[in-house]
Amino acid sequence: MQLRQQTDFLLYEWLQVEQLNRRGRFSDHSRETFDAVLDTCERIAREKYAPFNRTVDIEEPVFDGEKVILPACTQHALDAYAASGMLSAAQDYDIGGMQLPYTVEAAANAFFACASVSIGASMLTVANANLLMAYASDLQKKVFALNEFSGRFAGTMCLSEPQAGSSLSDVATRATPDGADHADDPLGPRYRLRGNKMWISTGDHELTENIVHLVLAKIPDEDGKPVAGTKGISLFIAPKHLVNEQGELTGERNDVALAGLNHKLGWRGTVNTLLNFGEGRSPVRGSPGAIGYLVGKPGEGLKCMFHMMNEARIGVGLAATMLGLAGYYASLDYARTRTQGRPVGLAGKDPSQPPVRLIEHTDIKRMLLAQKAYGEGALALALYCARLVDELHTGEPDQKHDAQWLLEVLTPIVKSWPSEWCLEANSLAIQIHGGYGYTRDFPVEQYWRDNRLNMIHEGTHGIQAMDLLGRKVLMDNGSGLQILGKRMLATCDRAISAVQKQQAAALQKAWAHVLQATAEAWLGQDPVLSLANAVPYLQAFGHTVLAWIWLDLSLASQGSDKASLGRRHACQYFFNYELPKTGAWLNVVQSRDATCADMPENAF
Amino acid sequence: MQLRQQTDFLLYEWLQVEQLNRRGRFSDHSRETFDAVLDTCERIAREKYAPFNRTVDIEEPVFDGEKVILPACTQHALDAYAASGMLSAAQDYDIGGMQLPYTVEAAANAFFACASVSIGASMLTVANANLLMAYASDLQKKVFALNEFSGRFAGTMCLSEPQAGSSLSDVATRATPDGADHADDPLGPRYRLRGNKMWISTGDHELTENIVHLVLAKIPDEDGKPVAGTKGISLFIAPKHLVNEQGELTGERNDVALAGLNHKLGWRGTVNTLLNFGEGRSPVRGSPGAIGYLVGKPGEGLKCMFHMMNEARIGVGLAATMLGLAGYYASLDYARTRTQGRPVGLAGKDPSQPPVRLIEHTDIKRMLLAQKAYGEGALALALYCARLVDELHTGEPDQKHDAQWLLEVLTPIVKSWPSEWCLEANSLAIQIHGGYGYTRDFPVEQYWRDNRLNMIHEGTHGIQAMDLLGRKVLMDNGSGLQILGKRMLATCDRAISAVQKQQAAALQKAWAHVLQATAEAWLGQDPVLSLANAVPYLQAFGHTVLAWIWLDLSLASQGSDKASLGRRHACQYFFNYELPKTGAWLNVVQSRDATCADMPENAF
């Protein structure tokens, strides 16, 4: 309930999503249709996801030699999700979609992440099909994407390889034309793929009739060598089971073999695999290699894959956020009921008095307020970014322009900040539970384990930091920074009360420090030193963005109701306890501190 | 090897433990005898502990209805530990001890924690027996403590209860005199105990012939009511199996029943239990209630229990530290061998060049240097505090005086700081491993899970913070602060080079800020607000102490060898990246920030 109230406030009051309905694409929508989607998702999450969050943690996926076995609740959750229509929520009416704004879709999907972040992983199928809708041929869309939207097929993203995690230029999977007639296949130019793909979520299972693998591979040049770097990477569809032009299974299995399951710290409801493509044990249609159909043009694989990157990274940030909020709600509930000790003033004085509830201790309130500030702040930022995606897709030209530049600089933040601070929130949730939090009888330890993934996948913290300081803030002479700064200033200008003005001044000071550090980071001649402290920069940038988000939320929460009061308190917490941390992070950026760069390897 | 070198440097060069051998108690010792102890412990840890760290994580303790089953390696580890003589290392020669300084004992035990922190938990047996040596009767010492030192019996500490974790004044276990002749029992005044004890590590197992439970319970007053608060708490020995005056098992089982095992996030090699005392299913010697022998005087239970608190908390800090270092070594090893990507300057420019090793990336070095600064700094602090324990026990009066006051203020730090920052180190170790770090194929995720316990047990972070700001810095008009400040100044006075002087100035400034914040925290009239930000105070205090430790280590590392160079770099890292964080923490302390205290419960 708490989450729904918060979501409603963010969508309808803060982000005013109903305004989107003035646009042609969304003109059939209203608060009623949005609410209906939110109601449905909230209900399915409550009934089919939340009760099984521990089940999928305990009953890890197993490979029995033939197939991957998942607990039955996974199938039930997936079926309910598909039946809700959410797989094609954003699609056109004429292919069965809802033409739902992305902001509402993201908010609705958040209920599932809060209930059980790892069951099903339907987001991957949606991302896969969305990508096909953008780049695939009409027949590829019909045969693959539409069957994914219906829930008949599932989809994966096969980027990483065992020897090359984050470094896609080192992709070694090769794609060679499949015979002389390879270009004439109606499903697309036909290639044979050979290579190993690592960290493939939902890489194998029996939950759907088929699995559509989207695979990055390199087509060798005229000398038979793969092109070095990312330019040589192309994108292929490699279905687990081969299909005909009607999307019916032909009965032939493609040469995509499960080489192993990864046994993870958390996020265990999603099977994660090592897949071998074309290892050649069983020839497919008489030849070795896994059959793959080219999507788009050769060499444009990364471009296609990164087309959906904003959404993918918002999705990771939202998952981290919902884990943070799940822990917040659990520890808040615990703190309201568990009795323990006596408040400071009475300690030791009158032990004959009964103990008080945990929430009556100030330090417990501090840990709850921190979680609230991290989790609700992150949720606001994620939905703000989702709103920008809608602006980018359906806004007027100037709105599109601003949204694009804002997303360039905010995407590394919306992905990294919740991954770091909502993980910290989960640690505080454990702390509030004391010893009980360290047991598997309470849900918080699982949230913490699940959340640790988010700083790693979809671009590590380090990669987000390099992307921000090394690319995004420099692009187009700093357009992203300028537009973001204007929005911050607009928020500050609305400050009226003394407290608000104080916060606005603190925000402007912190932002000025960020800008100064950005400039000074690049003063020298050595990019190694400019980027040596990219992560502290990312952290400071993120905290400053969140201070802005909180001030803006606070300005929209001037009522005397408890929810508004709570948001104003969380804002104050953020300005008093969190924003002052940015100074320490930025100092090393400004000075291009070389301590780390200069450390000799053998001195560790 | 790396750990041993570091230990040797700290013990022999930095702490000069050989000087202890001038004292009567240690006069038979020399570097050779110390080295022999370290060699033995290093070898046993390598052979009997390290190979089984994952085993004890996977094969959790199981209760089969009659007994608790642990993997065989636990027995082997425990037996090897007992055979090493380490259980009685600190004891007098005449009872079979080694009269080893505590500093060396602590350093030697650290090898085990680094290899596998949760196997065996022999520290509890040692702590239990040490406590008996201080407060028990001669016969109790002989029957219980000596059999613990030999490894024949194990020991537990039964403080917490399900309804009262940290709040010992709410202990509800009751002790009633066992018949008219209860005071005449040669094993001590005999009582019957009834109550439940929670979080009891090693509470039941078959590893030893018997288990000696030390139990806190309340003796009812004349009206039959338990005395409120901590004053009514007494200490009892309740063996699992009853024994005679020769320490032989009589064949009677005491009424101490295993009510359940706790299933934990980590630290799974140590069985953790809920025990029911005197639940009455089977009368013992014809009467209900578990038999317990009073130790010391009635009402002095907490005093006895907290006698060993400094050592117990140093022990927790050391365990956290060793987990931090274990993760550091693992991720350093991984970073030196795993290749991934190309350095900044070359990125995208020449992808035909082979990828470099992780350690060649500056951000990886940053994460390694942070781990080194956290782990090695924490180890130095822990051994420094261990050295103070030796001063307290065997020093001249003025040394004792200083050691006592320093331990008062440093104990909350040595317990809390490694618990927080070596946990962060473990998270960085995962991050360096990327996706592999998130799998159970690498050891780092387990270190992170194991380490999460340390902010909870033996006094939570919040309790350490209240102890520091609410008690320790106020005692004796701030003697602890004054003596600590003098030691910091003495270190600063030895700064010679420009870098050292800069660091000394930064340390003095940070310490002055700590002192100012201490004073201003207590300016108001409301202890709730004075202590509202005790945790940020603890964090700032800890970081300042560690900056001092690092400066002192750096001053002792002026050679041109790689180890010295590495320590100077870690010191520089700490001063540039970590110490500046203290400002943000102290600001809320100084202003007695009321944001958390004022947050209304229903606004969360």
Written overview of the protein:
The structure is a homodimer of 604-residue chains. Chain A folds into 4 domains: 1-120, Orthogonal Bundle (Butyryl-Coa Dehydrogenase, subunit A, domain 1); 152-299, Butyryl-CoA Dehydrogenase, subunit A, domain 2; 308-459, Butyryl-CoA Dehydrogenase, subunit A, domain 3, CATH 1.20.140.10; 471-596. Chain A has 604 residues and is an alpha+beta fold. In chain A, 51% of the residues lie in helices and 11% in strands. Chain A has 20 helices and 12 strands. Chain A has helices spanning 2-14, 31-49, 53-58, 72-83, 102-115, 122-135, 138-149, 301-307, 309-337, 362-394, 397-433, 444-451, 461-472, 479-493, 498-521, 527-530, 534-555, 562-578, 582-590, 595-598; strands at residues 62-63, 68-69, 153-158, 174-177, 190-201, 210-218, 233-239, 241-243, 249-253, 256-261, 272-277, 290-295. The model of chain A has no long low-confidence stretch (mean pLDDT 95). In chain A, strands 3, 4, 5, 6, 7, 10, 11 and 12 form an 8-stranded mixed sheet that branches. Chain A has a two-stranded antiparallel sheet with strand order 1-2. Chain A has a two-stranded antiparallel ribbon with strand order 8-9. In chain A, a hairpin with a 5-residue loop joins strand 8 and strand 9 (249-253). At the A-B interface, helix 10, helix 11, helix 12, helix 13 and helix 17 of A face helix 10, helix 11, helix 12, helix 13 and helix 17 of B.
Keywords:
homodimer; 604 residues; Butyryl-CoA Dehydrogenase, subunit A, domain 3; two-stranded antiparallel ribbon
